[in-house]
Write a structure and sequence with these properties.
Among the domains are: 1-95, no CATH class; 500-589. The protein contains 34 helices and no strands. The protein has helices spanning 2-14, 29-36, 42-50, 54-59, 62-76, 80-89, 98-112, 116-124, 135-150, 154-163, 172-187, 191-200, 209-223, 228-237, 246-261, 265-274, 282-297, 301-310, 319-333, 338-347, 356-371, 375-384, 393-407, 412-421, 430-444, 448-455, 465-479, 484-493, 502-515, 521-530, 539-553, 559-562, 568-575, 579-588.
């Protein structure tokens, strides 16, 4: 380092004095140094010297400047270029006493627990003027105020200063205190929210309230039709947007996205509230991401819009580093064709953000091994329940499967059958399943074996107790005049009837049996209780065509119900009608 300074001194000795502009009235040591040692232009050197107080500029000597620069360079481990930048940005540093600066650096390093690199970073951040501030009257009370007013621990205070070194030069009374008060009032922040905002974006303290913050907040609120709570939420999530230009950044970006995705105002608002849209570059990120998604998945405009609105975070993902390799891997792993891949991603767009190594690969392997699925079953399972890819194995899937197996006393094959047939069980909470199972078991007075038989049938657990199961069982019991035993027997014999609509299926069939076939209520009841599956056949394609041919042949219409479970060929042979006549009746329906 000494060699470097000696070289600079020799250079000065060999270079003739610089001709100064006549208007320059200072001694010129700083001016000469900037030109001869830093290679500054005459204009830049004059500008630097004019930033010195006249009496300081007159007292400065080359020896003093060499001494200060030598100390700065060695103490802060600065390159020649870094030294030039530090001095030309903060010329008054040339007039500071080295002993005072050293003391200030030691205090600052100790107060914020800085290593040499961090201390250098702060000084390189354009705040070398801090070296001229009094520790007792300026720096110490300023840092104490920041820490106390924001409730910061030592690590948070340190991090804040490293993110925004210029705050060391800001006035508490004239700048930071009124600005924090203004922000807190404007956004109705509590103390914790104010601290969080400043920690996430310390540079907010450098913005003007009247000239920057207020117009941006007012514009955002009006442009996106935000309530006060929504504005606070948006700014708390993305505080850096307070630095963005309205005309050059936010307005053109919102307009572009709104046009590209054909969004109405409400949809644009939803997108802005749920993603860092205003922080993203249209040219470098949003536009190529949307184009790639649309091309890769063959999406029309409506599908692309729906997908982005469902998972706005897609706009911030990298195509090359994340989405492209994830889709390629999924397509290969599950042997998906283009249509299946599209279906999977449209249903679960968040999977584009999942890690293959840490999430998708181990999860699919675990599912396949745990349920003993072949490749086709795994593919079908994932296509039926794409959300399984977002579920945690440890916190969700494993405990749920273990609970189901224990609760219903299932062997491995039965567990596999249940889950493959009803994948949605894995997206239902254990509390909901337990409540539903308890209700069914109590309502129908089932033992564990009967409950297991019922659940292994149709997708009963996907039905709501309040909106479906309870009113349906009450209706069946009342309509067919069943006691509890008869209801249980009927449900266990043909559990699929729990999935049938009363108004659209079962009631019209019962009315048909009575009105068209001439059954009395007791006859109908006897027939249905003995053969509940009669309610599973189509009124349109089975019962009505068969009734038509029976009437045409003068055969007892009740045979329609008696032979409801038989094939068309058997039915026609027993009632003595040509099969062709039944086929014609079926086509006329």
């Amino acid at each position: 380092m000494r060699a470097c300074v000696l070289h600079l001194s020799l250079t000065v000795a060999l270079v003739p004095p610089v001709v100064r502009p006549p208007s320059h009235v200072c001694s010129g040591a700083a001016y000469d140094y900037c030109i001869q040692s830093f290679g500054c232009t005459a204009e830049a050197a004059g500008k630097a010297e004019r930033r010195l107080l006249p009496d300081i500029a007159e007292r400065l000597t080359r020896t003093k400047i060499d001494y200060v620069c030598d100390w700065l360079q060695s103490s802060l481990d600065l390159s020649d270029a870094e030294l030039k930048r530090l001095v030309t940005k903060n010329p008054p540093v040339l007039g500071y006493r080295v002993e005072a600066m050293a003391s200030t650096l030691d205090w600052l390093q100790d107060r914020l627990d800085l290593d040499a690199g961090q201390l250098r970073k702060i000084l390189r951040g354009g705040v070398a003027s801090v070296l001229g501030l009094s520790v007792e009257n300026k720096l110490a009370p300023k840092l104490d105020w920041l820490q106390t007013s924001l409730g910061l621990d030592d690590a948070q205070l340190k991090n804040m200063v490293l993110k925004l070194p210029p705050l060391l030069g800001m006035s508490v009374e004239a700048n930071m205190a009124p600005k924090l008060d203004w922000l807190q009032t404007r956004l109705d922040l509590d103390v914790a929210e104010r601290r969080k905002m400043v920690l996430l974006n310390p540079s907010v303290l450098s913005y003007s309230a009247e000239g920057s913050l207020e117009p941006r907040l007012d514009w955002l609120q009006k442009r996106l039709d935000l309530g006060d709570a929504q504005l606070r939420k948006l700014v708390m999530r993305y505080p850096k947007l307070l630095a963005y230009s309205i005309e050059d950044n936010m307005e053109p970006k919102l307009q572009w996205v709104q046009t590209r995705l054909d969004l109405d105002e409400a949809q644009l608002k939803k997108l802005a509230l749920r993603t860092a849209l205003l922080s993203l570059s249209v040219v470098d990120n949003v536009a190529p991401t949307l184009d790639w998604l649309q091309r890769r998945l063959v999406l029309d405009a409506a599908q692309l819009r729906k997908m982005v609105l469902q998972k706005p975070q897609l706009l911030g993902l990298s195509v090359e580093d994340n989405m492209a390799p994830t889709l390629d891997w999924l397509q290969m792993r599950l042997e998906l064709d283009a249509a299946q891949l599209k279906k999977l991603v449209v249903k679960q767009p968040s999977l584009l953000g999942y890690s293959v190594e840490d999430n998708l690969a181990p999860k699919l392997e675990w599912l396949q091994n745990y349920l003993d699925l072949d490749e086709g079953q795994l593919r079908k399972f994932v296509l039926l329940l794409p959300s399984v890819l977002g579920s945690s194995v440890e916190d969700n899937l494993a405990p749920k499967l273990e609970w189901l197996q224990k609760r219903l006393d299932l062997d491995d094959a039965q567990l596999k059958k249940l889950v493959v047939k009803q994948p949605s069980l894995l997206s239902t909470s254990i509390d909901t399943l337990e409540s539903k199972l308890d209700w069914l078991q109590s309502r129908l007075d089932l033992d564990v074996g009967q409950l297991r038989k019922l659940i292994l049938g149709p997708a009963v657990l996907s039905l709501s107790v309040e909106d479906n199961l309870a009113p349906k069982l009450d209706w069946l019991q009342s309509r067919l005049d069943l006691d509890d035993l008869g209801l249980r027997k009927m449900v266990l014999t043909f559990s699929a009837l729990l999935t049938y609509s009363v108004e659209g299926n079962m009631e019209p069939k019962l009315c048909f049996f009575q009105e068209e076939l001439g059954l009395s209520p007791s006859e109908m009841r006897t027939s249905i209780v003995s053969t509940p599956a009669s309610l599973g056949y189509s009124l349109k394609t089975r019962y009505r065509p068969r009734l038509e041919v029976c009437r045409a042949a003068g055969v007892d219409a009740r045979l329609v119900l008696s032979y409801s479970s038989k094939t068309d060929e058997f039915f026609c042979e027993r009632v003595g009608v040509p099969l062709e006549a039944l086929r014609a009746a079926q086509e006329d329906v």
